[in-house]
Amino acid sequence: ADRICGRRLKVVIPSFIECMQRNGHMTLDPVVREKILAISAATIDRLLKPIRAEAGDRRKRRGRYDRRLKKQIRIRTFSDWKDVSPGYCEADFVAHNGGVITGSCVHSYVITDVFSGWVEVLPLVARQQGLVVEATKRLREQLPIELLGLNTDNDSAFMNESLIDHCKSTGIVLTRSRAYRKNDQAWIEQKNGAVVRRLVGYSRFTGLVATHTLGRLYQLSRLYVNFFQPSFKLRSKMRNGAKVTKTYFKPATPCDRLLSEESVP
Fold first, then answer.
1. Distance from first CA to last CA of the chain, Å, rounded?
2. Which residues, 6 or more positions from 35, have their beta carbon under 8 angstroms from its beta carbon?
3. DSSP 8-state secondary structure symbol assigned to residue 149
4. What is the DSSP letter of 90?
5. 42-65: average pLDDT
């Protein structure tokens, strides 16, 4: 249940038990089942206290816990992306909240390969670390190249032990940008607007139906964006006083960049 509090957990325990028993994941003695259904929120929190302490409950030690995790993840700035090879991606969330930050809403989980510009998007019904790990596994399967590195911002949905452990076990290099420096993730920020916002807009979406509908849209649009949408890629940037001169490679689709050696920096 993603470590929710006792008051929230008490509400979903009946449906959890029913689903798990119906699908053969657990068998409960009738007396035990009756006691679990009658348990109070305070008793739930008391029983889970030692387990939460062992796991490192962020509600008790949020600042120290976050800092400890961040120290494990190397910072990667915009200047570290020179001569990058295919497979090193940036990741970010796009919140479909309609401008209202309260309440839960659908989030689009976006990753882009920095070398080619290849984009993959999956909608999440909520921004939770367990869902992020599962979505990362699916996006890894959809990518036409091996996922070698993942660069994220400092969102708590990324800065957690679940994603860190997953990246370690799969050999993915996990890095992060500097806080409040969007330029460190310039490639994914551009795709958030050019792909997700252009397709979906700024309306508010909530619930499973909206999530499934967005998922179908993204599965269709990924072919169009990655195979038929040429884009520019920066070759160099020179500053002379206040003037900045940029040069670009010939426009190409993400697929063309992965197949052609001419676009290799």
1. 45
2. none
3. E
4. E
5. 69
| pLDDT score for 112 | 95
SS3 of residue 245 by DSSP: strand
Rounded to the nearest integer, the mean pLDDT of the chain is 87
State phi, psi for 89 to the nearest 5 degrees.
-120, 155
Task: Give the Cα separation of 165 and 179 in Å (integer).
Answer: 22
Higher pLDDT, 202 or 78: 202
Length of the chain: 265
Helix or strand run (H / E) with residue 217: helix 207-228
Nearest to 159 by CA among 58, 92, 60, 73: 73
Name 126's bridge partners. none
**Alpha carbons 45 and 58: distance in angstroms, whole number:** 15
DSSP state of 59: T
H or E element at residue 175: strand 173-176
Q: What is the 3-state secondary structure (H, E, C) of 81-129?
A: HCCCCCCEEEEEEEECECCCCCCCCCEEEEEEECCCCCEEEEEECCCCH
Report pLDDT digits (tens) over 175-225.
Answer: 999 888 888 888 899 899 999 999 999 999 999 999 999 999 999 999 999
pLDDT value, residue 192: 93
Q: 198 Cβ partners below 8 Å, 6+ apart?
A: none
